[in-house]
Structure formats: structure tokens, C-alpha cells
């Protein structure tokens, strides 16, 4: 809000008062004093920092030369042993080299020769116990002819960290014959630590490109073997660079110089403690600050005593004015923004949309309106309370803003409804990309009340000017498209089209038909066998629902199940399915057919129904079917939506002795650690992996991983959608337990499935 001229005139009047002029003069003096003091401190600190960086680089250059010289001497020894071994055919070349004084001092270095079968052939170390520790080097150098530098290891005799340098030895025919090794105390490579230059908290280290310290010395402490982030510590440059870094191993800030050694998998690390390097300049800075503080205190007391009352009065006036301005700005802000999410509200969005419509008309632009509604928000709001619901809406608002450009607009219309305006478009494909980005962002887990929840969104899209040229038409058509997206299974988006009205009518026809389908006995159950992967015998079956509509014909489950879910009709339909399959299974048993487990899919609405357990108990009691012959299948995503509630329901089912399976496993979010907490009996590999398991390496690897995970949890692993012999052979070779699919039989009515059971029973009787 701009200030009026009278406001500035009043301010100038205050400046003329003595109580105002004196503090201003004092402030100028203080500013000059502290500016000079801080500048002096900064100059001296900068000088000390540059000096520390220079010293670090100098020590680093010297240390680098020492390490290179030491490694080259070790490598030269290895090459001498290699030459003597290969050229002169000496199986034990060490005595000959020692006699010629060509071996390094035995006090520091241990030289040994190990055969290709890990036998110690020669060693300068009297207490050498064997060559078992050489197996890693043998494995690496069998196909390599390079200098191999081991990770540090502790000598069991001396308890000191040691390093091993190895080279390949060849037989006369050029084949691998063994290795030559030089062992040395890791401390040897940090022996040049000079406390007078490095201080007590400096660091001198030799770091492998694998991020493992071969040796690191600080003061008298020598360590080795710990791992750090190599790329963060060693710059990718040829020069010896110095940076002020916080050491990950002890939290000390150091002027650190690092560079990788030429042609070696090692880097030298030199660090000077910032605290030690700046101790003198910091002590001097404290002296400057104390003097400046003393002078400031005297000046401040003098000015403060004179201006206290005037200052208090000015502050009270200023606070009152600021409070009025802030209140007015807040009132104006809330008139056009949502108080919870701070997004534009419905009123402001309408104004912005009208404004952009005018601009789109003028400049012949395309734009899009996206209506977004959260799926399952009411369930979370009712379960966890409104505070958790508010937290969820705030997080959704943040994720939406993260998906959009600065020129795009996102608003909250109320409840769990949001709207997005994309004012400048290149084509329709861009809108689809934004919608997919939003769906992916919202599908990520939300953490509410120390629990993990997942929600999805349905998005409807209308385009200017194809779907409307005014505010109301664009919003209405986006709203229609959003509801169509919900009907298509949620977690998707839908562009508005003229066909949507016809599709809406078709959905109404389905909904009306569903309300009478049970009483008209229009539902049918088909059964598909689950077979043992080895013997091919039927071990169980899955019941699949079909709807024989009198006008539409056989309606696929994917068409009517979502409608049944949304309307709640899935609950009575689901009860009918459960009762019918139990009755059918008991009937088969009474006819002398084998007692097999029958599987039924549970939808999300059925799973959260509070009467599920009592309904199941009643059905099992009425039909007389053994509970262990009933298996309920739930999807992986449903399993992870509300872990605590899921565990409660599954525990109740297991107490009834009902089997539990995860359907379409592999496309959700579960993990081994998550599955371990649930009382499961089997997992069913999703058919999308099985379809290309013999042709796509990725699907093959995922299928093998699922089978391995299932077996590690002692779960029965069932493959769905097996349609070819090659798929069945692959599953058999990888120890899958059971499979089902068109390769053996399609889902068939009960009377045809009975024939399959009878045929199997007859074969069993014949074999007996």
C-alpha cells in the first residue's frame, strides 16, 4: 500500500526534533565505527584464509610427491620379482633378490609370492601363516596385468593397519601363474605428518577412488578403512584444489586440498583445521570487537537516555499504523484466496479466467482448464479427522504448484476440488503431459499422523476455444470430463468431448441395470483352474464374475465393477458371489470331487466394509464349507493404503482360517519388509510381467525376483495369464509353485469346470 504525502511530511517533522536527530547522528557514528572494525577483521581473516589454503596446497604437493615415489618403489620391487620369476624361472626369487640387495627393507616391507592356487611360495615375513587372504587378488589379477592396491586390513599379529600391493605373475606359456605381493604398514604413507605445519587437528590421508581411506592421520591418531564420498572430497580437475569442507568422519571444518594421483586409483588428502589456522586472527578479532563494543555502548547509552521517550512514542504510533495496514491487506487477501492452502479461491479464479479468455480472444491463443478432484479424500478425512484432511489438502496444493509454470494458475474451489488454468498452450499433448505429471505427483505417499496414505486424483480438461469460449462453459465442460475420469476408474484424466454425454447415459443404463441384476438372476460365475507347475494337476480355482445383461449382452467386469464400487452395489453383489462359490464348492465335494481351495477377488469397498468378517462367518456357517478352502484376493495397492486397518482386517480373516492372497503383485508399492508384517498365504504375479517374460529381460528379472521373494517368505507363488508353453517352461524352471491362464483352460461355467475335476479324479483313480 503506497504512503500518502502527508505521511512523509509528518516523518520530516519528526526528523527535525532533537530526540530524533541525535540518535541519527549516533547511528552514523556507530555505522562508521563498526564498518571500519568489521572491514579490518575481514581483511585479516581473508589473509589468514588465503595463507591456510596456500599452506594446504604446498603440503599436498609435497605429500603427493612422497606417495608417488613410495608407490613407484613398491611397484618397481614387484616388477623385479615378476621379472625374476618369469624370465629366470625362479619359483622362489626372493633369496636371489635379497642377496643382490634388490628388496626393500624387511622392517617396513613384506614381500611374498603366491601361486595361482593360493599357496604361499615365498615370503620375507617369518611369521607368514598362509596365502588364504590372497584369493581376492588372485581373482582380480587372473585376467588383469596391472598394479592392484588392496583395501586396508588389520594384521592379526601386530594389530596394525596394512596395505597390500600386487602384480600378476605369468607362466612360460603366458598363462596366469600367481601373484607377487608387497605388504606395508598403512602408517608408512602418513609418516610425514608434521604437527608444526598441520597442527593437532589437521589431516593427512590416502583415499582410494572407491571412497575407502587406505590411511588417514590426525595428530597421533591413525585410522584406515572408513568410507567417504569420493566425488565430494576430490575435485575432478588436474590442479591441486583447496576447499573449506566439513570432514564427514569427525565433523571438523578444514582447508582441504585433494587430487587424484596420476595413473593410480588413489588420491592424496591434506587438511588444515579452520579453527587452528584462524585461532590467532580470531583472537585479534575479539580484541577489535571488544573495543568497538565498548565505544558503542557508551555512545548508545548517551543517545538512548535522550531519545527513549520519543522512541517509545514513535514506536507505538508505527505499530498501530502497521497493524491497520496488515489487517486491511489480510482482509483483502482472504477475499480472493483460500485461507487453508493460500491458493486463489473460486472468486479470484473466475476473474483471472475471464481476463485470460479476453487475452486468448485478442491474441488467438489456446488455453486449458483442468478440474481436479481427489479420490478417497472423504475416507481419510473421516478416519483421521479434519486436521489430517487439512494437512493433506495443503500438501496437495504444494505438489500442484510444483507441477506448473509460473504463468499457470492453480486455485482451490472448495472441499477436495482444485482447478488449474494453463493460459498458453502449444498443443493438446502438452496438456496431457501436465495432467500425467499432476497424477504422478499426487499418487506419491502422504505421511499423516505417522502413517503412510495414498490418494489419487481424477482430472477433467476443457480447451479454449474448442470446448467453450466463456467462463461458465469451460468450467462446466471440465467438470463433466472430471466425472467421466472418475467413472473410468479414477487416477486418470479425461478431455471433454461431445461423446461424454452419450457415455454418461450409458453409465446410467449400467447403474440402473445393476440395481436389478441380482433379483433378475443375471450374474454368472465362471471358474478358472490353478495348476501345479510340476504335475499340471488342478490345485484350486478362481471364481470370476460375469453379467449377462438382457440388452447389452455379456458385460465385462471392467465395465460394471467400477460402477458397482461407486454406487455401493458391490456389497450385495459381493455377498452373492461369496455365498454362491461356497455353495458350489461344497456341492462338488459332496459329489466326490476333490476338496480344493476356491479364490474370490475382494474390491476396495468390500475390504473396508465393517460387516465383512461377520458376513463371511455367516456364509461359511450356512454353507458348511471349511474356511481353509476359501481364499480372498486383494490388490497390492489396497494392501498398502492404510497399513494399520489392513493388518486388522487380515488378522481377523486369518483367525477364521481363511487364506489370503495378493492379486496382481508387482505393480504396486509393497516391499519385502512391508509384506513380512502381513499374514499372507500366496502372491499372484501380475499378468503384465508374464506376457513378455520370455522376450523382455526386464520382465524376466522382475518375475524371478518376485518368485524368490515369495519363496523367502514361504508364500505360494502363482503366475497369472500363462498362455504359451514357453511361459510355462520358464516358470517351471524358476520354481514357481502354481499358474493359471489360457494355456490350460479359459474361465468356464460351473458345469464345464466340473468336467475338468472329474477328468482329473478319473486319472488319479486309474493311476492308483
UniProtKB/TrEMBL annotation:
GO terms for molecular function: cyclic-guanylate-specific phosphodiesterase activity. Residues 507-761 form the EAL domain. SUPFAM superfamilies: EAL domain-like, Nucleotide cyclase. GO terms for biological process: cellular response to nitric oxide. InterPro entries: Biofilm_reg_signaling, EAL_dom, EAL_sf, GGDEF_dom, Nucleotide_cyclase, Rev_trsase/Diguanyl_cyclase. Keywords: c-di-GMP, Membrane, Transmembrane, Transmembrane helix. The chain crosses the membrane at residues 20-41, 292-311. Its EC number is 3.1.4.52. It is an enzyme of class 3 (hydrolase). Gene3D superfamilies: 3.30.70.270, EAL domain, PAS domain. It comes from the Bacteria. It is found in: Cell inner membrane. GO terms for cellular component: plasma membrane. Residues 365-498 form the GGDEF domain. Signal peptide: none annotated. Its cofactor is Mg(2+). It catalyses: 3',3'-c-di-GMP + H2O = 5'-phosphoguanylyl(3'->5')guanosine + H(+). PANTHER family: BIOFILM ARCHITECTURE MAINTENANCE PROTEIN MBAA (PTHR44757:SF2), DIGUANYLATE CYCLASE DGCP (PTHR44757). This is cyclic-guanylate-specific phosphodiesterase. It comes from Pseudomonas corrugata.
Amino acid at each position: 500500500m503506497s504512503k500518502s504525502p502527508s505521511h512523509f511530511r509528518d516523518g520530516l517533522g519528526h526528523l527535525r526534533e532533537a530526540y530524533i536527530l541525535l540518535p541519527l547522528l549516533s547511528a552514523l557514528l556507530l555505522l562508521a565505527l563498526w564498518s571500519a572494525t568489521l572491514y579490518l577483521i575481514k581483511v585479516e581473516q581473508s589473509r589468514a584464509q588465503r595463507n591456510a589454503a596456500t599452506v594446504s596446497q604446498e603440503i599436498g604437493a609435497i605429500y603427493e610427491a612422497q606417495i608417488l615415489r613410495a608407490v613407484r618403489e613398491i611397484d618397481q620391487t614387484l616388477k623385479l620379482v615378476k621379472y625374476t620369476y618369469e624370465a629366470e624361472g625362479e619359483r622362489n626369487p626372493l633369496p636371489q633378490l635379497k642377496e643382490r640387495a634388490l628388496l626393500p627393507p624387511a622392517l617396513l616391507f613384506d614381500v611374498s609370492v603366491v601361486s595361482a592356487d593360493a599357496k604361499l611360495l615365498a615370503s620375507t615375513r617369518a611369521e607368514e601363516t598362509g596365502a588364504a587372504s590372497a584369493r581376492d587378488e588372485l581373482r582380480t589379477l587372473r585376467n588383469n596385468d596391472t598394479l592392484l592396491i588392496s583395501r586396508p586390513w588389520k594384521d592379526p599379529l601386530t594389530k596394525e593397519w596394512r596395505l597390500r600391493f600386487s602384480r600378476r605373475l605369468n607362466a612360460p606359456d603366458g598363462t596366469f601363474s600367481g601373484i607377487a605381493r608387497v605388504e606395508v604398514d598403512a602408517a608408512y604413507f602418513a609418516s610425514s605428518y608434521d604437527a608444526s605445519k598441520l597442527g593437532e587437528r589437521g589431516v593427512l590421508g590416502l583415499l582410494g577412488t572407491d571412497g575407502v581411506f587406505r590411511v588417514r592421520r590426525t595428530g597421533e591418531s591413525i585410522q584406515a578403512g572408513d568410507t567417504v564420498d569420493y566425488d565430494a572430497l576430490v575435485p575432478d580437475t588436474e590442479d591441486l584444489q583447496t576447499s573449506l569442507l566439513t570432514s564427514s568422519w569427525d565433523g571438523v571444518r578444514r582447508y582441504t586440498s585433494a587430487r587424484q594421483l596420476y595413473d593410480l586409483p588413489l588420491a592424496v588428502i591434506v587438511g588444515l583445521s579452520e579453527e587452528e589456522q584462524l585461532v590467532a586472527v580470531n583472537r585479534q578479532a575479539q580484541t577489535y570487537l571488544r573495543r568497538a563494543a565498548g565505544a558503542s555502548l557508551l555512545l548508545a547509552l548517551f543517545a538512548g537516555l535522550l531519545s527513549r521517550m520519543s522512541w517509545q512514542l514513535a514506536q507505538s504510533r508505527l505499530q498501530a499504523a502497521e497493524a491497520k495496514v496488515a489487517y486491511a491487506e489480510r482482509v483483502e487477501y482472504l477475499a480472493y484466496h483460500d485461507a487453508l492452502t493460500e491458493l486463489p479461491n473460486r472468486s479470484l479464479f473466475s476473474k483471472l479466467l475471464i481476463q485470460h479468455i479476453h487475452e486468448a480472444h485478442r491474441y488467438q491463443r489456446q488455453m486449458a482448464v483442468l478440474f481436479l478432484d481427489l479420490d478417497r479424500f472423504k475416507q481419510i478425512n473421516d478416519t483421521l479427522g479434519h486436521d489430517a484432511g487439512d494437512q493433506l489438502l495443503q500438501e496437495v496444493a504444494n505438489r500442484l504448484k510444483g507441477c506448473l509454470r509460473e504463468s499457470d494458475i492453480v486455485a482451490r474451489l472448495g472441499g477436495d476440488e482444485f482447478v488449474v488454468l494453463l493460459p498458453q498452450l502449444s498443443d493438446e499433448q502438452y496438456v496431457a503431459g501436465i495432467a500425467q505429471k499432476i497424477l504422478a505427483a499426487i499418487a506419491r505417499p502422504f505421511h499423516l499422523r505417522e502413517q503412510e496414505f495414498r490418494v489419487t486424483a481424477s482430472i477433467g480438461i476443457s480447451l479454449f476455444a474448442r470446448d467453450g469460449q466463456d467462463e461458465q462453459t469451460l468450467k462446466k465442460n471440465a467438470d463433466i470430463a472430471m466425472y467421466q475420469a472418475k467413472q473410468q476408474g479414477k487416477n486418470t484424466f479425461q478431455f471433454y468431448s461431445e461423446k461424454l454425454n452419450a457415455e454418461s447415459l450409458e453409465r446410467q443404463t449400467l447403474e440402473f441395470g445393476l440395481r436389478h441384476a441380482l433379483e433378475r438372476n443375471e450374474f454368472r460365475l465362471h471358474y478358472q483352474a490353478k495348476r501345479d507347475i510340476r504335475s499340471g494337476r488342478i490345485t484350486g480355482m478362481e471364481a470370476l464374475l460375469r453379467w449377462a445383461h438382457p440388452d447389452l449382452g455379456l458385460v465385462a467386469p471392467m465395465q460394471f465393477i467400477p460402477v458397482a464400487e461407486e454406487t455401493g452395489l458391490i456389497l450385495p453383489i459381493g455377498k452373492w458371489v461369496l455365498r454362491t462359490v461356497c455353495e458350489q464348492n461344497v456341492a462338488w465335494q459332496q459329489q466326490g470331487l476333490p476338496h480344493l481351495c476356491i479364490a474370490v477377488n475382494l474390491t476396495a469397498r468390500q475390504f473396508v466394509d465393517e460387516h465383512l468378517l461377520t458376513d463371511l462367518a455367516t456364509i461359511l456357517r450356512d454353507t458348511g464349507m471349511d474356511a481353509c478352502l476359501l481364499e480372498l484376493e486383494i490388490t497390492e495397492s489396497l494392501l498398502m493404503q492404510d497399513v494399520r486397518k489392513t493388518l486388522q482386517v487380515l488378522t481377523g480373516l486369518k483367525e477364521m482360517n481363511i487364506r489370503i492372497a495378493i492379486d496382481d503383485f508387482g505393480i504396486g508399492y509393497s516391499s519385502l519388509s512391508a509384506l513380512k508384517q502381513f499374514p499372507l498365504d500366496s502372491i499372484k504375479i501380475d499378468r503384465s510381467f508374464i506376457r513378455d517374460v520370455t522376450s523382455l529381460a526386464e520382465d524376466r528379472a522382475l518375475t524371478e525376483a518376485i518368485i524368490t521373494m515369495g519363496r523367502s517368505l514361504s508364500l505360494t507363488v502363482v503366475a497369472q495369464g500363462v498362455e504359451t508353453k514357453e511361459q510355462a517352461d520358464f516358470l517351471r524352471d524358476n520354481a514357481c509353485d502354481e499358474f493359471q491362464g489360457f494355456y490350460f483352460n479359459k474361465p468356464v461355467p460351473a458345469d464345464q469346470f466340473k468336467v475338468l475335476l472329474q477328468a482329473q479324479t478319473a486319472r488319479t483313480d486309474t493311476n492308483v
